Amino acid sequence: MKKDNLIHARTCVYNVNYHFVWSVKYRHKLLNKRIEKRLKEICSEIAEDKEFIIRDFEVGEQDHVHVFVSAHPKIAPSYIVKMLKGITARKLFIEFPEYIDYYNNDRIKQKLAGMSPIKYRTHASQLAA
């Protein structure tokens, strides 16, 4: 291990990194460029506030997120995921209500059962653009 990768804290020396991946509900292709940009901004704010570092952030295929994080050993990985997923979801729900209204209703159950009307499919393609 290179010594320049080590972080010196008051009581320890560490290099703790985590790779987190999470997906959008039902793997819908929701994460367009506009949402991706805002998602990165929100995650950066959270990292600064909660005192960990986002080394890399990437959205894959518009339906999942990869985050590579470096954190102090006292910060639990579950806490980092809880903060990233919870706060980003809450803020994105407020800022992009058109996606939430579309994807959180009974139409989802019909679509999963194979009964998706054409008007919903065209609306989904317009949202993904």
From TrEMBL:
Q: Cite the Gene3D superfamilies for this sequence.
A: Transposase IS200-like
| Gene Ontology MF terms | DNA binding; transposase activity
Q: Please state every residue range assigned to the domain named Transposase IS200-like.
A: 13-126
Superkingdom of origin organism: Bacteria
Mention any Pfam family matching this sequence.
Y1_Tnp
> For this chain's UniProt record, which GO biological process terms are given?
DNA integration; DNA transposition
Tell me the PANTHER family matching this sequence: TRANSPOSASE FOR INSERTION SEQUENCE ELEMENT IS200 (PTHR33360)
List the protein's name: Transposase IS200 like protein
Q: From which organism does this entry originate?
A: Metalysinibacillus saudimassiliensis
Ranked from the top, the taxonomy reads:
Bacteria, Bacillati, Bacillota, Bacilli, Bacillales
